[in-house]
Amino acid sequence: MAHLFSAGKRFRVLPGFGLTLGLSLSYLGFLVLVPLAAVFLKASGLGLSGIWDLATAPRTLAALKVSFGTSLCAAFVNTVAGTTTAWVLVRYPFPGRRFLDAMVDLPFALPTAVAGLALATLYAPSGFPGSLFASGSTLGSLFPGGELKIAYAWPGIVVALVFIGLPFVVRTVQPVLEDLDREQEEAAATLGAGRLRVFTRVILPVLLPAMLTGFALAFARALGEYGSVIFIAGNRPFQTEIAPLLIVTHLEQPDYPAATALAVVMLVMAFAMMLAINLLQAWTRKRLGHP
Amino acid sequence: MRIEVEDLHKSFSDYPALRGVNLCVEDGELLALLGPSGSGKTTLLRVIAGLDYPERGRILFNGRDVAGVPVQKRGVGFVFQHYALFRHMRVWKNVAFGLEARPLFQRPSRAERHARAMELLDLVQLGGLGNRFPGQLSGGQRQRVALARALAIDPAALFLDEPFGALDAKVRRELRRWLRDLHDRTGHTTLFVTHDQEEALELADRVVVMRDGQIEQIGTPEEIFLRPATGFVYGFLGETNALDVQVSGGRVFHDGLEAPLLEGAARPDGPARLFVRPAEVLLEPVRETGAPASGPVARVTQVRRRLESLHLDLVLEATGASLEATIGGADPAGQPTPGDRMTVRIGECRLYDPETGSPPRVEKK
């Protein structure tokens, strides 16, 4: 422990370990720790059994299922699509590349409600991509029931979450791809490795930790997303109601204990999943021999 | 494997990297591609290996045109300057990569691959390091792993691109000798690229000197060193002075200098370019007796200390041309100082046609 805080004793060009650590801790404390502690404090009034009862109410369970299910789904889609996007941006020079590169960040800047509204309109059976899957269309007939309902249904939530989560994967994978040593691929090729083997054995292992980080970020962002989802989800209890919306519903009733209980459950579950992803990432790094 | 290259052309955007290269590498030969940066030596190696495509020309492996053969199928081992090891794989896995990449029916079992990798690691004197990751090895060790990896596929030829370029001088000399030994034991046809003249001369059976995408001279180290075909080759193999001279009746004059620099030049009369090593610029102090000097006179402008010699910068008084000379510097008395006047005599030197004699861009290490 002592060595941790004696960092200032060594010569450093830029001093200020104490100051910056202090600032970071108070910053995190006021903005993250205190509000979260308040949630737990409020919930503690309910007692463990009280929280358990509220958390296992059928409507709550359904909302949690929707939230975690769609978020995981969207994070998977984003990991694949985001890695592909990063690949195109890094590997191939083409006209409009810088424009595309700038466009990746748009979901960060756009008010999520606007995105939700736009997506809901477009993915409704009357909108453009939505009509492709509507009842009577060729693609739609591939699905049971003759149509795939996107807006105001489960897939719609995934679409919205994919939209807001894409930049996370692109921006974490991109720098790693840029650093990738092209000679390693050439070396693999001279050793007789075909394209698939070069990708799976040489490139993918290097990208995997960054992809996992991107996955975790996109997943975390999706879990907390509210603005865009409520416009496209339809918000039918037990079917397309997400947990953040259920919290708001509880607040409006007003049923504060139920809202805090759900918040605590989400927090704990989210924390557990993030921890798991981080451990998985650390394991991958070690397994693949990253320093 | 015998490698023939005919009229090879390759350019990058508008920069011609290879301009009509013809070359024949004999089976089992150790050949050096030597030249300054930008001379096209690495491009030539990459094109032959199949990592780049030529615009024109033919490449024959044992008489067979390999134009349509992708790099994966050419069966050449390639060693990169910066090793290009797979950092996420253990050393033995790196070495076994080529065996693992074989088609399913020709792929040795995991145990066989491991055994072969260990055998090769022993060959490159890295036995016992198979379970490390490349990041845990020194530069010299990494390059030997890269070589073992290239040897694992039983290559028909071995290509090395500046293999020792990223290593320090001592390790480089050790690896050089070791590579020569290895070549003599395994007998692979080997091509290696270097900008280090000493490395090329010491290591290779034959040296190819390249300049601006063309071959300037091919020959054994002795031929290259003793009979450089052009002023460029001569200049690239060591420090040189280059002077524009006139040959007239077997006497060599520089820019209308009164006294001839050299007597008995076996060249037809006319303009030429004279190349002389600094050690062959022979100096004698001018005695201030009033008698006319016995040859051209130069003034010392700078004296610098080297390990076993003194390096002088001189200016020819009659024409203002600058010269460099080295003299033995063991004796502290009688050392020249700036401002001294010296009579210049040219010792062993070479005369080339003016157009082939432009001074080379010599790469500093």
UniProtKB/TrEMBL annotation, chain A:
CDD domains for this protein: TM_PBP2 (cd06261)
Annotated membrane topology: Multi-pass membrane protein
UniProt main location, coarse: membrane
Superkingdom of source: Bacteria
Keyword Nucleotidyltransferase: no
UniProt keyword Ubl conjugation, yes or no: no
Transmembrane annotation, as ranges: 21-41, 61-90, 102-124, 151-170, 202-223, 258-280
Signal peptide per UniProt: none
Entry-linked InterPro entries: CysT_permease, MetI-like, MetI-like_sf, Sulph_transpt2
Gene Ontology MF term list: ABC-type sulfate transporter activity
Residue ranges occupied by any ABC transmembrane type-1 domain in the UniProt entry: 64-277
Pfam families membership: BPD_transp_1
GO cellular component: plasma membrane
The entry's keywords: Membrane, Sulfate transport, Transmembrane, Transmembrane helix, Transport
Record localization: Cell membrane
Role of this protein: Part of the ABC transporter complex CysAWTP (TC 3.A.1.6.1) involved in sulfate/thiosulfate import. Probably responsible for the translocation of the substrate across the membrane. Part of the ABC transporter complex (TC 3.A.1.6.1) involved in sulfate/thiosulfate import.
Quaternary structure and interacting proteins, as annotated: The complex is composed of two ATP-binding proteins (CysA), two transmembrane proteins (CysT and CysW) and a solute-binding protein (CysP).
Family: Belongs to the binding-protein-dependent transport system permease family. CysTW subfamily.
UniProt-recorded name of the protein: Sulfate transport system permease protein CysT
Species classification: Bacteria, Pseudomonadati, Pseudomonadota, Alphaproteobacteria, Rhodospirillales
Gene designation per UniProt: cysT
From TrEMBL, chain B:
One GO BP annotation of this record: quaternary ammonium group transport
Keyword Translocase applies: yes
ABC transporter domain location: 3-237
ATP-binding among keywords: yes
GO cellular component terms, A-Z: ATP-binding cassette (ABC) transporter complex
Record keywords, A-Z: ATP-binding, Nucleotide-binding, Sulfate transport, Translocase, Transport
Signal sequence bounds: none
GO-annotated molecular function: ABC-type sulfate transporter activity; ATP binding; ATP hydrolysis activity
Name of the protein in question: Sulfate ABC transporter ATP-binding protein
The species this protein was found in: Phaeovibrio sulfidiphilus
